[in-house]
């Protein structure tokens, strides 16, 4: 019985493959390598280059490797891109997830773990946000993920597909053992961008909006270390394997930091100033979002280890330096 990890060559997926192979699971990765890297896939896993929307390929993989669980990371993740290309996002994130789910149902896969997002909440009326709050996405990205959650909910009822959807808050940092990290060269995520700027790989970064209704005027986010996020996936998988109930869980620490606070943390960790200029707001950005973070602890038994912004930023910086050395070699 193996685990199929879609998007396993990508940033978060590659950390899942490491955790699963470390735990002794058989892992098959399905990735089209559009943003992922072959080298990021743990050697103990089998990498298949292909598309999650290709049902025949997926069904054959499930049969050939006796896949009992799917952990589904593959998808498009840049909020502003989803605003300019909504149909591309609905194709990659919703239509193709439907194909993957259909293949899973047809082949009798038992468990399905899905990378959802805090973006399903949109601009919450109050913080923190809880899983029981009404979703109200303000970007096509958030909507595309919410639609997949709804398909999972209905497929659970109709076909008995067990699922856990994990709503990620802002994922950052890298494997503490230095085996993987956020490697997309044109990444848009704040901590990566700030790390690249302080290391001189970018001349300057931009702070997207200082006129939000927040204490320092910049957006507030709940940053979670990628290894803690993966620990929640491992907990979700063992929960489902033990026959636990399907459901939806926030993955964050329940603490918010502003863009300026993150930039200061990068300055502390590097000992250098970050060259940041103030710019206008970015389309699709909610002012603040912080997780109600208890349910994942109570039901899945999640125990985070890296709940510390300075540690997260340091591990992101370490990974950028590793990439610099790698690219120079
Ligand atoms: N930001 C900047 N400058 C940059 C990059 C980001 O000021 O160069 C700001 C953004 O405007 C935002 C904050 O930093 O206020 C965080 O932005 P990110 O791009 O790092 O992350 P997002 O909050 O847009 O999105 C991320 C994930 C989504 C997830 C969401 C949940 O990409 O998948 O967090 O909060 F849904």
Explain what you see:
With 329 residues, the chain is of the alpha/beta class. The chain folds into 2 domains: 2-172 and 223-251, NAD(P)-binding Rossmann-like Domain (Rossmann fold, 3-Layer(aba) Sandwich); 190-221 and 254-328, UDP-galactose 4-epimerase, domain 1. Helix content is 40%, strand content 18%. The protein has 10 helices and 13 strands. It has helices at residues 11-22, 55-64, 79-84, 86-106, 140-159, 190-198, 226-241, 259-270, 295-300, 309-328, and strands at residues 2-6, 26-31, 46-49, 67-72, 111-117, 162-168, 170-172, 205-208, 220-221, 223-225, 247-251, 257-258, 276-279. The longest helix has 21 residues, at 86-106. The chain is globular. 52% of the residues are buried. Bound molecules: uridine-5'-diphosphate-4-deoxy-4-fluoro-alpha-D-galactose (UFG). Uridine-5'-diphosphate-4-deoxy-4-fluoro-alpha-D-galactose binds at residues 77, 79, 117-119, 169-170, 188-190, 193, 205-208, 219, 221, 259, 282, 285, 289.
Q: Termini separation (Å)?
A: 39 Å
CATH architecture of the largest domain: 3-Layer(aba) Sandwich
Instruction: Give the CATH class of the largest domain.
Output: Alpha Beta
The coarse overall form would be: globular
- What is the strand tally? 13
Q: What is the number of independent domains?
A: 2
CATH topology descriptor of the largest domain: Rossmann fold
Given helix and strand content, the structural type is: alpha/beta
């Amino acid at each position: 019985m193996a685990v199929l990890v879609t998007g396993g060559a990508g940033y978060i997926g590659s950390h899942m493959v490491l955790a699963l192979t470390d735990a002794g699971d058989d892992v098959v990765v399905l990735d089209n390598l559009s943003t992922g890297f072959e080298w990021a896939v743990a050697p103990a896993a089998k990498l298949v280059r292909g598309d999650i929307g290709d049902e025949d390929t997926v069904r054959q993989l499930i049969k050939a490797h006796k896949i009992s669980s799917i952990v589904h990371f593959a998808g498009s993740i840049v909020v502003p891109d989803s605003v300019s290309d909504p149909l591309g996002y609905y194709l990659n994130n919703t239509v193709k997830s439907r194909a993957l789910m259909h293949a899973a149902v047809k082949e009798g896969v038992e468990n399905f773990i899905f990378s959802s997002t805090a973006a399903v909440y949109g601009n919450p009326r109050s913080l923190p946000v809880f899983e029981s709050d009404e979703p109200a996405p303000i970007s096509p990205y958030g909507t595309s993920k919410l639609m997949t959650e709804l398909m999972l909910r209905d497929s659970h009822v109709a076909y008995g597909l067990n699922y856990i959807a994990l709503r990620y808050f802002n994922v950052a940092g890298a494997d503490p053992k230095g085996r993987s990290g956020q490697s997309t060269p044109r990444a848009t995520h704040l901590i990566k961008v700030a790390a690249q700027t302080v290391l001189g790989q970018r001349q300057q970064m931009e702070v997207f909006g200082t006129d939000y209704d927040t204490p320092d005027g910049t957006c507030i986010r709940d940053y979670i270390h990628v290894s803690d996020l993966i620990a929640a996936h491992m907990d979700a998988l063992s929960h489902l394997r033990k026959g636990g109930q399907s459901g939806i869980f926030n993955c964050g620490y329940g603490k918010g930091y502003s863009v300026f606070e993150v930039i200061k943390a990068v300055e502390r960790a590097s000992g250098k100033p970050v060259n940041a200029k103030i710019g206008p707001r970015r389309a699709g950005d909610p002012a603040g979002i912080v997780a109600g973070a208890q349910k994942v602890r109570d039901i899945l038994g999640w125990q985070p280890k890296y709940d510390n912004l300075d540690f997260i930023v340091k591990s992101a910086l370490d990974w950028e330096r590793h990439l610099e050395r790698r690219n120079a070699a």
